[in-house]
Design goal:
This protein is of the alpha+beta class. Helix content is 22%, strand content 32%. It has a seven-stranded mixed β-sheet, sandwiched between helices. The chain has a six-stranded mixed β-sheet with strand order 1-5-6-4-3-2, with no helix packed on it. Helix 2 packs parallel to helix 8. The longest helix is centred in the first third of the chain and has 17 residues.
């Protein structure tokens, strides 16, 4: 089936309108291209698919680095400058759909578009032909595992260590069905930590890793929450610090405390996190500071919000709870710093705040090069 691609959508696919009016969301396709594609999901009003032949190629198309690119990093098909431009445009569109006219800053990057991930989880694939186990990813849009021989988005220390573990499994004649996956993580110095997850067994305890961000040292579990791309994350932290002018700072959805402790450890700082494991690590990271660590849902402790304060928001993909947005509108703290992994819900939330707040700066950051994922930092100032 043929389609002419109009643009990219936030999910990462190219979108086209077919002859019958149905919308098609197509992987491996760029704006302006004419493609032949195979349908992977067919609904009444739309379909999804993968381009199998490029009839008319975009001038921005390049050859992907990895055979497994569709599973791991489907934007390997475009030149890097174009990726940065597209991410800025997608953030702008998300806000426009919420009736906010804003010009985002250029997408920020450290320039490293491969070998950046400090965490990777591999599935295990059993090859019946040679009776060997191979690392694998799931084919996009399916549950089918695809064995891989090269992956270029994780740091080389992770791939090398994972390769050693797979070689050991094969030397011991292990069976892939015994295991759920292999998790590997490394710190900025290249030290690795991780383990195999055995089916039906609790996840093993893995040695913590440590890294320094903006002068603050953090300990974190390989299986816990910590940012995937630390050099770009540190760029964000330095930008956030530039906008903290108050003595009081409230860091909501704070995880292990890496934002608040990095940018406001010398302030009157309150950190709020609901996940017990992350909270325990936050307490360790906050040792030696005066930070107040709170184990709770961010929307359940709105009494901590004050007018003479900077509030930091870093919510999950679903965005902020309505109760929290309502309290921010009621109390109107001086500055709101909103870091988001989903510009769609970020724009929705900020639209609910626009009666009292203006966007001083909106900046996309390329935490996940060669993928459609976008981190967006908004600085909101009380009107």
């Amino acid at each position: 089936m043929f389609a002419k691609i109009d643009k990219l959508v936030p999910g990462g696919q190219g979108i086209a309108t077919l002859e019958d009016g149905k919308k098609a969301f197509i992987w491996n396709a760029l704006p302006g291209e004419t493609v032949d594609f195979t349908i992977t999901k067919n609904k009444r009003s739309y379909c999804e698919g993968v381009a199998t032949k490029i009839e008319t190629a975009s001038s921005h198309r390049i050859a992907p680095k990895d055979e497994c690119y569709l599973a791991t990093s489907p934007w390997q098909i475009m030149d890097y400058d174009y990726e940065l431009e597209q991410k800025r445009e997608l953030v702008k569109e998300c806000f426009a759909q919420n009736h906010i006219d804003v010009e985002p800053e250029p997408t920020q990057t450290d320039g490293k578009d491969f070998y950046y991930r400090n965490k990777m989880e591999y599935s295990l694939y059993w090859d019946n032909d040679d009776n060997q186990i191979y690392p694998a990813f799931h084919e996009r849009g399916t549950h089918r595992k695809v064995p891989i021989k090269q992956s270029s988005i994780e740091r080389t220390e992770i791939w090398n260590k994972a390769s050693e573990i797979f070689a050991k499994l094969n030397a011991e004649h292990a069976e892939a069905r015994t295991y759920q996956s292999l998790l590997m993580r490394c710190d900025q110095q290249g030290n690795t930590s991780g383990d195999l997850f055995v089916n039906g067994q609790p996840h093993p305890q893995m040695p913590n890793l440590t890294d320094s961000l903006n002068g603050q040292e953090y300990s974190y579990s390989p299986n816990g929450f910590f940012q995937i791309n630390l050099p770009v994350y540190e760029m964000v932290l330095k930008e956030i610090q530039n906008h903290i002018k108050t003595t009081k700072v409230l860091d909501l959805y704070s995880g292990v405390g890496s934002i608040g402790l990095s940018v406001a450890r010398d302030k009157e700082l309150t950190l709020v996190e609901v996940n017990a494991a992350a909270y325990a690590e936050m307490q360790k990271n906050a040792e030696g500071t005066n930070a107040n660590c709170v184990l709770a849902k961010s929307e359940d402790v709105t009494e901590y919000i004050a007018p003479d304060q900077t509030v930091i928001l870093d919510p999950p993909r679903a965005g902020c709870d309505e109760k929290l947005i309502a309290k921010l509108n009621e109390i109107q703290p001086e500055t709101i710093v909103y870091l988001s992994c989903n510009p769609i819900t970020q724009a929705r939330d900020i639209a609910l705040l626009k009666e009292h707040y203006a966007i001083e700066k909106l900046t996309p950051y390329n935490f996940f090069p060669r993928t459609p994922h976008i981190e967006s930092l908004a600085i909101l100032k009380k009107i």
